[in-house]
Amino acid sequence: MRALARAARILERVSGELSLAHYRVLSAIAGGDERASRVAERLALGKPAVSAAVESLSQRGLIARSEVAGDQRAAALRLTDAGRALLDNVETAMIERLTELQTRTPDGEQLLESLVWLGAAIEEVAEERMATRRRGGGR
Fold first, then answer.
1. Strands (E) located in the chain
2. Residue 58 and which of 25, 74, 79, 98 are 20 to 30 A apart at CA?
3. How does the average pLDDT of the chain come out, rounded?
4. Neighbour-count burial for 58-76, b at 16+ CB within 10 Å, e otherwise
5. CA angle 113-118-122, nearest 5°?
6. Where do runs of H (alpha helix) occur along 81-107?
7. For the chain, what are the domain ranges?
8. pLDDT at 138
């Protein structure tokens, strides 16, 4: 657990001007989550936290909002060119840092493969949680 917490801190340090929270929101939008409510659900964050992040990222020119046909309350979110460039730069820096750390482990390839498996497991749990919420199964 401590290693995961420290790894998160290391990645946040190399992300420069983008906090991990804002990184997560940008990457969710880049991954196809166009609405703030969907971002909140996917990231297991409260809607106020996501709204604040969306507002901040929008003010910085990293995301743009547009109207959703048929839903006056909703806004579609997309990365701007500046947002895409920053996300790409941050991810490149994170990958470089992980690669450096990987070379210091007994089996770096296994480490990376395990991270892929962990990511898939996290995604699977998130999808199950969202499906349960949609069916009215609570939090």
1. 63-68, 71-79
2. 98
3. 91
4. beeebbbbeeeeeeeebbe
5. 150
6. 81-102
7. 2-104
8. 58
Q: What is the DSSP letter of 75?
A: E
- Contact present, 42 and 130 (Cβ < 8 Å): yes
What architecture does CATH give domain 2-104?
Orthogonal Bundle (1.10)
Look at residue 37 and tell me whether its pLDDT is greater than 90: no
Would you state the structure tokens that stand for residue 99, as one six-digit string? 């690669």
In this predicted model, what pLDDT tens digit does every residue of 81-118 receive, in sequence order? Answer: 999 999 999 999 999 999 999 999 999 999 999 999 99
10: nearest Cα among 121, 114, 96: 96
Residue linked to tokens 């770096």: 108
Residue 91: alpha-carbon gap to chain centroid: 11
What's the rounded Cα separation, in Å, for the pair 63 and 80? 5
Helices 36-43 and 20-30 sit at what angle, rounded to 10 degrees? 120
